[in-house]
Design goal:
There is one protein chain. The chain has about 300 residues and is α/β, with parallel strands linked by helices. It folds into 3 domains: about 80 residues, Arc Repressor Mutant, subunit A (Orthogonal Bundle); about 110 residues, D-Maltodextrin-Binding Protein, domain 2; about 100 residues, Periplasmic binding protein-like II (D-Maltodextrin-Binding Protein, domain 2). The protein is built from 12 helices and 12 strands. Strands 4-3-5-12-6 form a 5-stranded mixed beta sheet, with helices on both faces. The protein is globular, with a radius of gyration of 24 Å.
Length: about 300
């Protein structure tokens, strides 16, 4: 059998069913009837002479043979993308697609930099900007689902690497009438732990940073609020409910409005936190992606906090 005989539509239905875990889910994504997806997969199985999917409850599970076919699909997809990238790079006008993923606190800057400044200079480049927690963000970059990631409070590890890193300490934020707001010196975690604490949920860099800092200081932090929203952290503190943690930049607008006070901490862990511009090591990058990476690396100097 010639691999060229494999139908692109059949492969797409198979890939989507494996990706979402069900035939119905694949049909919804592809905007076709479930029977169409099932028929495509059945034809692939007949053509290849192997079973590809097993039913598990309401979903499907890929077989060992399916794992090989999935690898083939992803390799071919990557090769096709690389071909289009190389062809696009031959032109004088910068063109292409760049997918950026960042944490909530960086979206406003990324909107201004990538969509406004860079976008006006290079209208032929399409930017996709997505928000995610640090765990999902790193996975997206590692799995080539995003070209560039902006991550806070992590230590990059292969296959992900930092193009540039900027020091950006994690601070405490409280309402102006909170007892800690009168502190003249950096505040310890021991002092903060006497008050209700609001934190980001597990999977976010801020939560991981505060947990590491608390362990290093041998402090037990009892969370009053756990959230996946920086807005909720700011409101918790602004309403006088307790102490939240984030960078000074993330609270700057509320500080300017007189709703919050930013307090530096005595924690070496929190003071050493950094923001990284991430890519996957070894991935071929188009000229458009390289230009965006360089642009963000230069602009990220604005996030740097002097030692």
């Amino acid at each position: 059998m010639d691999w060229a005989d494999l139908s692109e539509r059949h492969l797409r239905s198979f890939w989507m069913a494996v990706t979402v875990g069900s035939v119905r889910g694949a049909a919804d994504r592809l905007d076709v009837e479930p029977s169409v997806v099932s028929r495509h997969i059945q034809r692939l199985q007949l053509q290849l002479g192997v079973r590809l999917l097993e039913r598990r409850g309401r979903g499907v599970k890929p077989t060992e043979a399916a794992a090989l076919l999935l690898e083939f699909c992803e390799t071919r997809k990557a090769q096709e993308e690389q071909l289009l990238v190389r062809l696009g790079d031959m032109g004088k006008t910068l063109r292409g697609r760049v997918h950026i993923v960042g944490g909530e606190g960086f979206i406003p800057d990324l909107m201004t930099w990538a969509l406004c400044e860079f976008g006006r200079q290079h209208p032929g480049v399409d930017i996709t900007l997505e928000q995610a927690g640090v765990r999902d963000l790193v996975a997206m970059v590692a799995q080539d689902k995003a070209h560039v990631g902006i991550a806070y409070c992590i230590e990059p590890s292969p296959p992900v690497e930092a193009v540039v890193s900027r020091r950006k300490p994690v601070c405490m934020i409280v309402a102006p009438n909170h007892p800690l707001a009168r502190a003249k010196q950096p505040v310890s975690l021991q002092d903060a732990a006497r008050y209700p604490i609001a934190q980001m949920a597990a999977g976010f860099g801020l939560q991981q940073a505060v947990s590491r800092a608390a362990a290093a200081a041998k402090v037990v932090i009892a969370d009053r609020l756990v959230t996946n929203s920086l807005t909720s952290l700011r409101e918790f503190a602004a309403l006088g409910l307790g102490v939240s943690f984030m960078s000074a930049q993330s609270a700057a607008a509320d500080v300017a409005a007189g709703r919050l006070v930013v307090l530096p901490t005595t924690s070496r862990v929190l003071n050493g936190m950094r923001v990284h511009v991430l890519i996957r090591s070894g991935r071929f990058q188009s000229r458009a992606v390289r230009e965006v990476i360089g642009f963000l690396a230069r602009k990220s100097a604005m996030w740097e906090v002097a030692v």
